[in-house]
Amino acid sequence: MISKKMKTFVSKSSTIRAMFEEGRRLAQIYGEENVFDFSLGNPNLEPPDSVKESVKYILDNESPNFVHGYMNNSGYEDVRKAIAEFINKKHGVNLSEENIVMTVGAAGGLNVILKSILNPDDEVITFAPYFGEYRFYCDNFGGVLKEVPPDFNTFEPNLKRFEETINNKTKAVIINSPNNPTGVIYSDSTLKSIAKILTRKSEEYGTSIYLISDEPYREIAYDGVEVPYILNYYKNSFVGYSYSKSLSLPGERIGYIAVDSEMDDFEEVMAALKVATRILGFVNAPSLFQRVVARNLDSEVDVNVYKKNRDLLYNHLVKLGFECVKPQGAFYLFPKAFIEDDKKFCEIAKEYNLLLVPGSSFGCPGYVRIAYCVSYEKIEKSLPAFTKLAERFK
Amino acid sequence: MISKKMKTFVSKSSTIRAMFEEGRRLAQIYGEENVFDFSLGNPNLEPPDSVKESVKYILDNESPNFVHGYMNNSGYEDVRKAIAEFINKKHGVNLSEENIVMTVGAAGGLNVILKSILNPDDEVITFAPYFGEYRFYCDNFGGVLKEVPPDFNTFEPNLKRFEETINNKTKAVIINSPNNPTGVIYSDSTLKSIAKILTRKSEEYGTSIYLISDEPYREIAYDGVEVPYILNYYKNSFVGYSYSKSLSLPGERIGYIAVDSEMDDFEEVMAALKVATRILGFVNAPSLFQRVVARNLDSEVDVNVYKKNRDLLYNHLVKLGFECVKPQGAFYLFPKAFIEDDKKFCEIAKEYNLLLVPGSSFGCPGYVRIAYCVSYEKIEKSLPAFTKLAERFK
Question: Which part of the chain is the Aminotransferase class I/classII large domain (chains A, B) (predicted)?
Answer without folding.
Answer: 34-381
